[in-house]
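Entry under discussion copied across for reference:
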Amino acid sequence: MTPFSRVYITHTAAFLPGDPVDNDGMDRFIGSINKMSGRIKNRILAENGIVSRHYAIDEQGKSLHSVASMGARVAEALLDKSSHPGFLAAATTGGDGAAPGLANLIQGELHLPPLETLSVSGICAASMGALNASAQAVESGSTASAIALASEFPSRLFKASRFRNRDADIDFDAHFLRWMLSDGAGGVTIENRPAKTGLSFKIKWIHQKSFSGDMPTCMQVGQSIGNALPGYLDYPTLAEAEKAGAFDLRQNIRMLPNLFDMGLHEYAQLVKDGHIDPSSIAWFLCHYSSERFKPLMAKLMEEAGIAIPAERWFSNLSSKGNTGSASIFIMLDEFFCTKAHSLKIGEQIFGFVPESGRFSVAYFLLEVVDASDLPAVASPTILPEPENLPAPPITDEGESGQIADMLQGLMSVWHEYRSQIFRTDLVRAIMAGSVTMEDYLAWMECWIPQVREGSLWMRRAVSSMTPQFRELATLVHTHASEEQLDWQVLYQDYLNAGGTLPAERLGRNPGGEALNAFMHAYASRPDPVGLLGGIYIIEGSGQRIVPTLLPKLKEHLGVSSSVLKFIEYHGENDQAHMLRWLNAVKMVAEIEPSAIAEIVKVAETVAALYLQQWRFAMPNTRSHIP
């Protein structure tokens, strides 16, 4: 996290090319490419909620602007409102050419005097990189003002002419973004004091974190699917690269739930660490690609005391579309223009920008100020040591506040556990496509006996509960009954995949043995309600991790659903299991509030043990896994 003491957003600007294009008019610009296009278009638009957007091409596909010219329009508007900056940062997913950088092209187009520049390449969160760098330049005193902007022109990649004469059919991942993304540019002026008149936004902090080491690429352009060549420049000719689909802007939508999961848990960690109090947020500017959110995750946010009421959210997705990295600046400009009259001094504005390229998240916290809020000192504020940070906010008094604290603690445990799971040899092999049937069978051989024991320790826990937890015992008993036969489904998958060992000869690996021993021992204790923490980790793995592995296993093993019925079942049903778990937690908190700390403690232990089971799941360490 980067804290700031004297950095202010004093002006905003946006440029949206051409007239708004409604949903019916999209075909005139980017066109249908096959019989699937219409059906895919209707499905995607129904989910994302976009009703109009802007294109920088005309109906014949001719470019009317460039990435650099749109960025220059924004910079020019910002220059009219302030003195010449000493720093210019410009972000984009795809420039007009491979080089030079966008910031230098904009500087050249406007014939600006010498200044420091930074060109940021990425996807949605590239804009936050430009904002952070500009803010740091001002905070350090190297310049009194800076400009941060982003410009995007994806429609050039969506023209129907680019999809003709292909060697293979156009798959859904290539279709998807054609109906999601549009063109535009936006930016802000950053200065070391508020604007002389009107309101400004003081930047309190910017927080960015990349999870690119955890999972493979989700969104990309420059590579074709199913080709071993690294990128478009490795083809004999660019024409062959285009024919192979290397210039398709693609997104693996099956991986997108992981981005929301990462963003939610990183946000929960910010709350837990005391960097933000959701109850103090006046407005929430969230860059998202679709109006459709996962109800379970929204429920967990609410129960954890970190939800921000819907009436405080601000988005212009429906009217301006998804303009990638430029979206947050275009959103901020519209927010500033439409809400300035009603904003109050001291109000806080929280922003969130996720990036699906290879998974990054970024956040910022702003405060509404006016010209009277001048910096008291010239030197930057030093972030206090961790032990001196303010305590995390408590949402309510009593049990509800304790539940929120517990859920924030569990989210912190899950956040670290999930990251480590995706670094294990097994999951890396699955995601990288190097997994073999031998690996899958070895995984099943140590997993089946663990699943078989699941209902046993649950029933033991039920028998250890006193009458005060009668309702909880009933819930756990119901869950145990559902889990009782799960291992048989998993064992049949194993046989269908070619496994030969009888069920009684299958044994848990060292991690599984440790996990099983702990669950049985803990279930034997009086009122073992702490096991709810373990269930959170175990069921969470099925609800959040397994759905990501399933399509990769199907793709790389080349097997039918008859080999993956157990994994499919858990991916579809663990959401209901998690809602049942949430009800159980509420019961425990009402009866014995002091037990919630124990639930987090058990979750930490189970996460550590379950991780070991994943680590020992491969028959041998495979050093060639990328």
Summary: Residues 137 and 143 are 6 Å apart (CA to CA). The chain has a mean pLDDT of 86. The two ends are 30 Å apart (CA to CA). DSSP finds 20 helices and 15 strands in the chain.
